[in-house]
Amino acid sequence: MARLAFVLACALALLASSVASGAIVEHSFNVNNLTVTRLCQNQSITVVNESYPGPTIYAREGDTLIIHVLNQSPYNITIHWHGIFQLLSVWADGPAYVTQCPIPPGQSYTYKFNITGQEGTLWWHAHISWLRATVHGALIIHPKAGRSFPFPKPAKEVPIILGDWYNGNVVDIEQDGLSKGIAPNLSNAYTINGLPGDLYDCSQNQTYQLSVVGGKTYLLRLINAALNTELFFKIANHSMTVVAIDASYTTPYATDVVVIAPGQTTDVLVKFNQLNGSYYMAATPYASADATAVGFDNTTTRGIIVYKGYTSSTPIMPPMPNPSDTPLANKFFTNLTGFPGGPHWVPVPREVDEHMFVTVGVNLAMCPENATCQAIFNSRLSASMNNESFVTPTNMSMLEAHFNNVSGVYTRDFPNEPPVKFDYTDTNLSLDLSLIFAPKSTKVKTLKFNSTVQLVYQNTAFLAIENHPMHIHGFNFHVLAQGFGNYDPINDPKKFNFVNPQVRNTIGVPVGGWAVIRFRANNPGIWFVHCHLDVHLPWGLAMAFEVENGGTPESTLPPPPLDLPKC
């Protein structure tokens, strides 16, 4: 009898452990090419599981995801799980040549990671070349079973992926720009869940449609998957309430417009309380740079929201903001606050171990010998952080070099501040030849485990002033303050919000301005930091953090998976 009781107790303990640790959520991703018709022409694109956008992954906090990726496309591929902490699973993070070598055509790799301390809207996407234009999908994390949202349960949840469309092969488009040293071609359309909408040629039947029940409240999970464009989003005659950003809950914020940068997510509650009818949802570009200096795709994508039982074919269109309405964008971004006491809320660390002041912006690079360069001064467009223009390795991933202590792949001397102090936002210096050329390098900043980092992003006025959405892999951060002009280390800290700052993984550094973030480096490995405008990433607007092991098994980077691809 005692033995039976012991066995039963063990079984119950195992069951409790299984429930506590969550479920196994397993998917297979087949990456291949698919021919679709958009804007009057057939186009071959790279997708996952014959779907554009790709499949939505649903999981709960505490679950373990296992994603088997088989690459049947003609290109090298990796998948990044944007916003996932990857606690002790940095090998699954995905940026090519940073945490792994790409998966070659015909080969496979299995990503495995646990979702710890996170719930909300994230997403996954290719993290090599411009393939994420069509290789992407939503990653929805629900609360653990038995727990609820910190707001009334919506009648329905709907992922809304905002993207862009190119009439051409995106890999070729990117390479054409890089070969000439100039910006690649602009997109030809924006999309809502892969469809451009009825304002574009040949697109009357390619308009996303959402049927809703009058009087009900829906949760729209907005994701900006566009390569290079921040977007305004509106719904005709309806207000929205922001309840989360980047899978972090916010104090509810009522607004009639959402501004969302590439890489960011925004969850909004919408009560469909208008007269039975049909209403457009629409997205247009927020183009922060001077349009005479930086071109942009000035078009509008829209979908239709139809109240059930309504049959009219004349939807109402919302008035859309001017593309250069920076005051409106700034109002939205700065009015968002965190949700202290809500699920997974982490207070702001008050003691800082590492202070960094990092300039971000576009630069120039010298034209290589025997090359044709079409940028100004017969040079190539480039970009940098603290005047270091990042070069991605090609023979070994940075994480493998870190784990195996291999030298020559990267150096540990990324600077805490720019080499020269100047008036960073003075447009009179935008073509100063003594400042705008940045050396190429592959540098990291080494951090002790569990150290607290305060990072001031400072935009520069080189070539063109614009908003830069900066993403940090592996960590959320508190946004303590943001503003325009040059950061003032004496007066601007007085504006820091230590009570309820917004929590993000991607921050749009204001055009001609600055943003201050703070985070705790509690996860060992190599963590990529980069601008989420894909035009700027290959130019070098990136760096990486190297977080050391913490000295315990729970804070030590494990060895790589056996099937990790080789370069």
Q: What general form does the structure show?
A: globular
Q: Span between N and C termini?
A: 59 Å
User: What level of helicity do the residues show?
Assistant: under 10%
Radius of gyration: 23 Å
Fold and architecture overview:
The protein has helices at 2-21, 170-180, 326-335, 398-404; strands at residues 24-38, 41-48, 57-60, 64-71, 79-82, 108-114, 120-126, 136-142, 156-165, 189-192, 209-212, 217-224, 230-235, 240-245, 248-255, 258-260, 265-271, 278-286, 301-307, 354-365, 380-385, 389-390, 440-441, 444-447, 451-459, 468-472, 477-484, 503-504, 506-509, 513-521, 525-531, 542-547. With 567 residues, the chain is mainly beta. The chain folds into three domains: 21-142, Sandwich (Immunoglobulin-like), CATH 2.60.40.420; 156-335, Cupredoxins -  blue copper proteins (Immunoglobulin-like); 354-555, Immunoglobulin-like, CATH 2.60.40. α4 (398-404) links the parallel β22 and β23 (440-441). The longest helix has 20 residues, at 2-21. 49% of the residues are buried. Mean pLDDT is 94; it is low at 1-20.
Write the layout of secondary structure elements.
Elements: H1 2-21, E1 24-38, E2 41-48, E3 57-60, E4 64-71, E5 79-82, E6 108-114, E7 120-126, E8 136-142, E9 156-165, H2 170-180, E10 189-192, E11 209-212, E12 217-224, E13 230-235, E14 240-245, E15 248-255, E16 258-260, E17 265-271, E18 278-286, E19 301-307, H3 326-335, E20 354-365, E21 380-385, E22 389-390, H4 398-404, E23 440-441, E24 444-447, E25 451-459, E26 468-472, E27 477-484, E28 503-504, E29 506-509, E30 513-521, E31 525-531, E32 542-547
Parallel strand pairs: 1-4, 3-8, 9-12, 11-19, 20-25, 22-23, 24-32
Antiparallel strand pairs: 1-2, 4-6, 5-7, 7-8, 9-10, 12-17, 13-16, 13-18, 14-15, 14-17, 18-19, 20-21, 25-30, 26-29, 26-31, 27-28, 27-30, 31-32
